[in-house]
Design a protein that fits this description.
This protein has 63 residues and is mainly alpha-helical. It has helices spanning 2-23, 26-62. The chain is elongated, with a radius of gyration of 17 Å. InterPro entries: DUF2061_membrane.
């Protein structure tokens, strides 16, 4: 758990640093830093659903 938490903090720091260096705005960088993980979480949910359907269909074809 400590490794995951540390990675999360590192990810936030990198996201903020990159966003700030590209925009020069603390506000925009902060928004990107916190909006991006939310969008990724939602996308990951739908990706998992698609992946599971894909695996289920491949089992039917190979069975």
């Amino acid at each position: 758990m400590a490794k995951s938490a540390t990675f999360g903090v590192m990810h936030i720091g990198i996201a903020f640093g990159v966003s700030y260096s590209l925009t020069g705005s603390w506000t925009i960088a902060g928004a990107i830093t916190f909006v991006e993980p939310v969008v990724n979480t939602v996308a990951h949910y739908f990706f998992d659903r698609w992946w599971m359907r894909r695996e289920d269909n491949s089992e039917i074809v190979t069975a």
